[in-house]
Amino acid sequence: MKILKLLQNRIFVSVTLILLQIILIFLFMQFIFLDAKALRFCSMIISALVTLYIINKDDDDPNYKIIWLIPILVFPVFGGLLYLVFGNKKPAKKLQEAYRKQDQAIKPYRYFNEVHKTIGDEVVRGQVNYIVDEQFPVYKNSEVKYYSLGDNAFPDLLDELKKAKYFIFMEYFIVEEGEMFNQVLEILKQKVKEGVEVRFMYDDMGSLTMLPYHYYKKLEEYGIKCIAFNHVVPLLSIVMNNRDHRKITVIDGNVGFNGGFNLADEYINAKVKYGHWKDTGVMIKGEAVWNLTLMFLTTWNASLNQTEEYDRYHPRHYPLPDIKPSGYILPYGDSPLDDKPVGKNVYLNIINQAQRYLYIYTPYLIINDELKNALCLAVLRGVDVRIVTPGIPDKKTVFKVTRSYYEPLVLGGVKIYEYTPGFMHGKNFVCDDKIATVGTINLDYRSLYLHFECGVYMYDVAAIKDIKEDFLNTIELSKEITYDDVLRGRFRGWFEAILRLFAPLL
User: Fold this and answer.
1) Is residue 285 one of the residues assigned to a domain?
2) Same structural domain for residues 173 and 217?
3) Distance (Å, rounded) from C-alpha 428 to C-alpha 426?
4) Selected catalytic residue, list 116, 278, 285, 425
5) Among the residues of 33-77, which ranges form H helices?
6) Which of these is catalytic: 90, 116, 191, 247?
7) Annotated catalytic residue: which of 203, 204, 334, 432?
8) By residue range, what is the domain housing residue 150?
């Protein structure tokens, strides 16, 4: 029975089929090039041309280039051909075209305002202008509530879902049946009976080990419109790299949730997997929720390759809850479809313009030289830079890579802390008591270049003091990485050095 169950396991079948494809491709290449000198020569020319192309390509991270240059140089006969087949890190052309169509469709509904021009701080105004020019407007008639734990956010999420009268949109990377999601699902089922429009979207890869195959069909039986984003197909393809890592809830257009927590029990510590799970998030109320709504609808309609009347979900059509407007709030997104790494650039802008302090939460500190140098240069300017990473990892191999970056940062004056009670999953930047961003964007290649992501940029918002206070409380529970720790070579070795070569794939 165990063998039969294993053979029916979706992950086992997918991995087995992909491995078979790799073996067959290798054997085919070996056979083709065994005695064909002309073919080998042509393939080596292709590899040389591909090498020149990779080196001169402007939109790739240097680390990603290295990953491909090594196999091409080691296996010049078929390395270039492999890159031509698998080197494109963007989604399938069909999905790209669907998103381009949606991008054009939503342009009339972005409703750009002049709020960004009222920001008095020139440095901050420049940061906001960048996001506004690339994507969405900034808002003042909104408020933010910060959550230092998923445990704290969950009761408010349930309460707001229960209040829904018109529509609910939910988009998550990981969904797993259990205490957390089952409570959410019961509310969604009830809301459907009350006539509320409910749309639900989960990433098929992110939930691969969590949900049964074709789980979306089960939700549709309850009247919930559902999409499994970018279905996992057991084919050797780079397309599977592009995942929907966003975590968005929109309720009646005027209430939105965003942050690091998914819909699974470990995110609210109902199940202990890696010690205490430390996650963060925000609830937005007011006009700024419109940006989250547009992000959701863009992904939804691109997945179905359809368009609809976006304006009917605009906040002005629905009752505005009681709010205390505070500062400037700008939900923003990031996509692998373009050559504009908005998430990375938002982080870089904050790092480069910090003056007094910069505090960061990240579960994966797998950064390129650009980010590493920016953090160390901030220290040289006199900025107090501190980073909190996990004390207990969720992925041991990835954690080894994270720790391998400690040495240059600590020697450069960056203070690094490991969250002793467990796993740090928050993605926060807070700076100089005036700027913060909370969202889904990690400090690793996948998050910054390959995934669909989102975050909430805040300036002069009351919740920023809560984000700072949470950080200071967290480092009291964390262990600081010292000079002695890195000088003794605790976190560096040949294994870590090899892993860093393939960091963009982890």
Assistant:
1) yes
2) yes
3) 6
4) 425
5) 37-56, 62-74
6) 247
7) 432
8) 93-330
Q: Same structural domain for residues 294 and 412?
A: no
Is residue 337 one of the residues assigned to a domain?
no
To the query of whether residue 5 is one of the catalytic residues in this protein, the response is: no
Query: Of 86, 117, 146, which residue is a domain's last?
Result: 86
89 a catalytic residue? no
Q: Are residues 69 and 97 in the same domain?
A: no
Q: Check whether residue 319 and residue 398 sit in a common domain.
A: no
Assess contact for 439 and 454: CB atoms under 8 A: yes
Contact predicate 440/335, CB 8 Å: no
Stated pTM of the model: 0.88
Query: Residues 371, 234: one domain?
Result: no
Same domain, 157 and 265: yes
Whether 348 and 316 map to the same domain: the answer is no
Please say which residue of 51, 86, 121 terminates a domain. Answer: 86
Strands 422-424 and 255-259: unpaired
Spot the catalytic one: 89, 90, 191, 245.
245
Catalytic residue among 61, 204, 252, 466: 252
- 80/98 same-domain check: no
How many distinct structural domains can be found in the chain?
3
Interior angle at CA 195, CA 193 and CA 199, nearest 5: 90
**Active-site choice (427, 444, 451, 470):** 427
Task: Give the amino acid at 32.
Answer: I
* Residue 247 is a catalytic residue: yes
Integer angstrom CA distances of residue 414 from 355, 359, 374? 14, 10, 11
Residue 245: active-site member: yes
* Paired strand residues for 480: 417
Q: What is the pLDDT along the chain (506 residues), one digit of tens a residue?
A: 445 444 445 555 556 655 665 566 666 555 555 556 666 667 677 777 777 777 776 666 666 676 677 767 766 666 666 676 656 556 667 778 888 899 888 888 988 888 999 998 999 999 999 999 888 999 999 999 999 999 999 999 999 999 999 999 999 999 999 999 999 999 999 999 999 999 999 998 888 888 888 899 999 999 999 999 977 665 555 556 788 999 999 999 999 999 999 999 999 999 999 999 999 999 999 999 999 999 999 999 999 988 898 999 999 999 888 899 999 999 999 998 877 899 999 999 999 999 999 999 999 999 988 999 999 999 999 999 999 999 999 988 889 989 999 999 999 999 999 999 999 999 999 999 999 999 999 999 889 988 999 999 999 999 999 999 999 999 999 999 998 888 776 666 767 777 776 666 66
- Note if 427 is an active site residue: yes
Q: Is 145 one of the annotated active-site residues of the chain?
A: no
Q: Any idea what the CATH number is for the domain that residue 244 is in?
A: 3.30.870.10
Structure tokens at 131: 């996001």
Q: What would the two tokens of residue 55 be?
A: 């080196």
